[in-house]
Amino acid sequence: MSVFRDDFLWGGACAANQFEGAWDVDGKGPSIPDLCTNGTHTTPKLLTPTIEPDKFYPSHEAIDFYHHYEEDIALFAEMGFKTFRTSINWTRIFPTGEESEPNEAGLAFYDRVFDCCKKHGIEPLVTISHYELPYALVEKYNGWADRKLVDFYMNYCKAIFARYQGKVKYWLTFNEINAGMMPFGGVLSLGTCKGYRGPAVAMPDDPQTRLQALHHQFIASALAVKYAHDHYPEYKMGNMDCFITSYPYTCDPADILANQQAMRKTNWYCSDVQVRGEYPAYAKRLWEEMGVTIHMEPGDAEILKNGTVDFYTFSYYMSNCITTHDDATKTEGNVAQGFKNPYLKASDWGWQIDPQGLRYSLNEIYDRYRIPVMVVENGLGARDTLEADGTVHDSYRIDYLRAHIEQMAEAVKDGVDLMGYTPWGCIDLVSASTGEMAKRYGFIYVKKYDDGTGDLSRLRKDSFYWYKKVIASNGADLT
């Protein structure tokens, strides 16, 4: 018997820049990912201020959802999706970000996508900004370092809120906004990379610019939430964090404190602002220790307090260990590095697999905020083998997802108000961290490869049929 609520939102998640393709079609302008080359696990993808003909830019075609959306959404419906988390590519609507009027062709594309979802009984869950900042705003303003971006973002929000009334109910203001707490966020999340050329996830750090830019995103998010609540009361507005669960590596009190500080900085700093409407008590000391002074304009505190979200969403892939000791081994991970946990196995990309950490995270989040929670990214990036008969036997992915859904059920029994689950990359797409196609997450295999070849045909993996059964049983049948 299922423990999940009857209206539980089972589905999957993608991002426009990682699967749409058609990067310059129908008036679309270039976004940051359109200027990022491909990479590998050992070779970083690069940000190039201009398109260079000798380099491959995977977002330019990706898996071409732009021309395959009807086929793909039909496959999602075949699995039984109740919701589909996707994003709107800002530069389809405002190619440079500064236009006063939106691009009609871009608006019309998302009309078709959302209408197709509705036809199949799928509720869209839309991320407004998912690492798709117009590159023109990087060049002119250094991205979110300039407060003028708040106005550009609000112009964008007002256009899409008005256009998709009756088609979209659930909105997320920024994807993994807490990426801005880490140097990685300076490129994809904040766009504070004017004049930078190099690895797209390893630019030189500038904490002052980074945290000031993040403050501007907080203001933009709060204003968007307040505007939606005032003008479209049926809209439900959420945040989205990359939740990096961490544990003390030892029982040394120094490790306990170091882990508490890591959880505060990585996870709670941003969500406290978006859910509670104010910076946490420890922010002042954090700023002092980082050498940061946040400039706030009159009224900012009121804006943050009046723009709190209705529900909390997050990505969860792995956990880390935190230590003050020198004898621990570092491990790879999503956004943030930590230390290896001897009790956990890891994926092919070094991400530690920790299903029980999801239950722990859900309880920590819900205990802190007491608003509905949704897991909007979770999954296993792996090297899939396409057999000669067109099958993909991805039992490892099924095992990963099963273990995490089991722990979600335990969290529900613990009392967590869990509203939905959308595993990441429900159809294969370009990896955000490395720019690869080889790192596959989906239930649907796409014949597209790291060198740009492939006929883009779609094939159902074993996990496709398994997830269909999970949804049909509302999470009761995980066999």
UniProtKB/TrEMBL annotation:
Any idea which UniProt keywords this protein has?
Glycosidase, Hydrolase
Instruction: Kindly indicate whether the keyword Hydrolase belongs to this entry.
Output: yes
Bilayer-spanning residue ranges:
none
GO annotations of cellular component type: cytosol
- GO MF terms on file? beta-glucosidase activity
GO biological process annotation, one example? carbohydrate catabolic process
Q: What family is this protein classified in?
A: Belongs to the glycosyl hydrolase 1 family.
Name recorded for this polypeptide: Glycosyl hydrolase, family 1
Question: Taxonomic lineage of this organism?
Answer: Bacteria, Bacillati, Bacillota, Clostridia, Eubacteriales
